[in-house]
Amino acid sequence: MDRDSLHRDISKSNIVINPKHKPDDTKKQNPKVTKYIEQVLDPTLENVKEIAMLIDWDNAALLGSGAPLTDMTGTPMYIAMAVSTGAFSGDGDHKRIKFPLISDEARALYISAYGQKRHDDYVSEINKSPFIVEPKEKVPFEHLSYLDMESVFWLYAYILCRACVGDEDRPTREYNHFVENMEHHNPGDTYDVRFGFLYESSLENWEKRLHPKLKLVAGMLLRMSRYLNVKWAYWKDDIPADHAHEMMKRLFLEAIVRVRKEGDVTINLKRARERWQDPARWFRFPLN
């Protein structure tokens, strides 16, 4: 969003972790990157180099550069639900939720990095918009910026649920259902098998999907899913285009602060948690 572009294919394969930098690389930090997360956590850092990079911009598009983006692009497992079906689902009235607030410690770090005005403006813009929208007809589909953030959410959720933390644990029924439905999602199907994970999940079920040592991020996933549950397309003329990006940034910061306080968890990125191989193969439908 800092570069006014949409990637439109957020996936695990399109993120490079810990890219190698040349020893003599003294380039200054990209001025279009306001702050890296390391600088939010430690304001004394300067010229931070990327530790993760988004690659493969073949499907990218510039915001406001022409006709609405109506084509289906993305990796099936992570594609946003509206992009998967080519339509914004749901008839009748639509309700939004309030912009999420974060913990005092995370809020202080955010304000130190970005300022009080920016912090308050997003909260104000979302919360002063109509709480209920009563459209006379469905809004036509287009790939809006918040749909890229839904793809980021699916990526977060899948990676965190499959994360191997070291000691083996017995995968739960909820974990198996989540992995099965994510990996077997087929764009264009009448029913999106991931529906329940976004619209009807609970804190308890997110905790059951995660490794026991990662339960502390279940609240982040739940709050993200509830925010993305809203059909924000019906508010697109009333709120900032990057509101979902801002929501994700804040909730991710809050989760990092909590993890640092309660003790870092080392994740083995070269392995994934095993599934519980039940002789009676799981039917693929979501658990709430």
Plain-language structure description:
It is a single chain. The protein is mostly helical. Helix 3 (104-114) packs across helix 10. It contains 10 helices and 8 strands. Helices cover 36% and strands 7% of the residues. The two termini are 32 Å apart. The protein has a two-stranded antiparallel ribbon. The relative contact order is 0.17. Mean pLDDT is 87; it is low at 282-286. The longest helix is centred in the last third of the chain and has 20 residues, at 243-262.
What distinguishing features does this structure have?
single chain, 288 residues, mainly alpha, two-stranded antiparallel sheet, two-stranded antiparallel ribbon, 10 helices, 36% helix, globular, disordered C terminus
Please state the average pLDDT score.
87
Separation of the first and last Cα atoms:
32 Å
Total strands: the figure is 8
- Spatially, the strands of the biggest sheet line up as 1-4
Strand content: 5-15%
How would you sum up the global shape?
globular
What are the low-pLDDT stretches, counting only 5+ consecutive residues below 50?
Answer: 282-286
Radius of gyration: 19 Å
Order of helices and strands: EEHEEHEHHEHEHHHHHE
Helix proportion:
25-40%
Find the structural class using helix and strand composition. Answer: mainly alpha
Instruction: Give me the number of helical elements.
Output: 10
Biggest β-sheet: count, sense, barrel? Answer: 2 strands, antiparallel
